Amino acid sequence: MIRVKDFLKNYKSTFAALILFTFLQTLGTLYIPTLKAAIVNNGVLRGNISYIAKVGAIMLLTSVLTGGITVWITRMSADASARISRDIRQAVFEKVQLFSVNDFNKIGTASMITRATSDVTLIGDTTIMFIIMLLPAPIMAIGGLCLAFLKDKVLAMIIVTTMIIFLIIALLMGKKVIPLFKQVQIKMDSINGLFRETVIGVRVIRAFNREKYEKSRVDAASSAYAENAVRINKMIAILEPIAMIIINGGIICILWIGGIRAGAGVMQIGDIMAMIEYCFLILIFLIIGVMIFMYIPRAQACAERIDEILAINPEIIDGAVIEPEKGENAHLQFEHVTFQYPNAEEPILSDITFQSKAGEITAIIGGTGSGKSTIANLILRFFEVQGGCIKIDGVDIRKLPQKVLRNKVGYVPQKNFLFSGTVAENIRYGMEDATQAQIEHAAQVAQAHYFIMGLDQQYESYVAQGGNNLSGGQKQRLAIARAIIRKPEFYIFDDSFSALDFKTDAKLRQALRNEIKNATVVMVAQRINTIMDADQIIVLEDGKIAGIGKHKELMKSCEVYKQIAASQLREDEMA
């Protein structure tokens, strides 16, 4: 099973190089105070100008080299961070593509978006901060203390004391801050979920004048997030002045005791200056390191949330059969299929058996909640059946790779979702290499060509995300054109004509007849006049088949169908 930490292993050589150069950078930074002390002790106090020039040149060269190494570390860290984020995000995306609808529901859409964006970004940012800011802290502390003890043990103990005081305060503060960090991403999920719901449902919100209510929900979620963030920032803000007090207190002690020791001839002025810089560098790097260290639990929480996605075993597993052999009789078969949604009290479909041959239109009709759309979803294997099997060309679809199965299908969903882009791009979504002529032909069959030509940019006109700048009927026709352009073996129309007027509906069905004459068609419908000429009509009631046959046969034999017809047709149409 892949975990977030596994992605870091792919960059072992990069991290090894960064650790090496961070060590060199730290040594360079620590070497400068030593050179400065030498200039004061052996140059300034003795009036040796040549020595000052010589050591000053070495100090300048050290500064330039250290600066160059710092730039290289920053660039390589940023590159490694970006690559790790890319790898994790790509792995999450690829894993999510294998999920069934039930698998999606385990995480939730809002949380999935947060994890794939905010969480991954935070992991990448923490990686670069760890290398640039946290990694040098222990190296600086150990190296600085070694040099300090070489200069003067008494003053070195002052530095050690200030370090201990600061670390105790940071530890006490960390116990309060770290739990708050772990809650931040969870609260961000809530905000993202509400924003997504508010944007998608803006028309319903306005229609019912519920703007104030939705605002109160968003405000409540945002306030909970802000409360956490403010508490964290307050604690971190307190840490900074405390740290500066400790640093300045340490420097005062070094100047005081160092002055006494210099007066006694135990140490030199330049060594006191070096000790002050060692103290300042060690504590500054410790402060930065502690602050970054506090972010690690948040990154760890993000990693655990991403691990949760990567650890999910997809409900639907690809089969091994590459391509089924085409049968002579039935292209699509349902054999005693039973399906129940998770946490449902009873199956939505029970013992469903029927077959549909090539060139036939099989219509499915029934009341709300009877399982019509579920049948369409099961054919595409968005869900896995619990009983029985579904066969395509004589092969159980569970034995087929999902890509092979879905390449055979042209699907028009109940909710006609379009993608941001042009009209042509949305139709071409059904066939990536479609020509303009093929796009226009599909649009003509779907009765979409006329309204497209009336748009400002025609086929290059912009479509907003979800198709929100088009009417329901226009979106529906583009979705139909997207399925037609594939020229698949199977068509699934899930209540795909409900937004069309009767005239457009009749024209579209007539044009479709010629286009899909060699394909197997499953048509889920609410309106009887849409399916009256179907080759067979399956009537569902409470998840079971109440009748199968043509329109006239069902009008005589199926009471459920007659009731539906009576609610939709005039008496002369029923006759």
TrEMBL record:
Residues 332-567 form the ABC transporter domain. It is a multi-pass membrane protein. Keywords: ATP-binding, Cell membrane, Membrane, Nucleotide-binding, Transmembrane, Transmembrane helix, Transport. Its main location: membrane. The keyword Nucleotide-binding applies. The chain crosses the membrane at residues 52-73, 128-150, 156-174, 241-260, 272-296. SUPFAM superfamilies: ABC transporter transmembrane region, P-loop containing nucleoside triphosphate hydrolases. It comes from the Bacteria. One of its GO terms (molecular function) is ATP hydrolysis activity. Residues 16-298 form the ABC transmembrane type-1 domain. One of its GO terms (cellular component) is plasma membrane. It is found in: Cell membrane. PANTHER family: ATP-BINDING CASSETTE SUB-FAMILY B MEMBER 10, MITOCHONDRIAL, ATP-DEPENDENT PERMEASE MDL1, MITOCHONDRIAL. This is ATP-binding cassette domain-containing protein. It comes from Aminipila terrae.
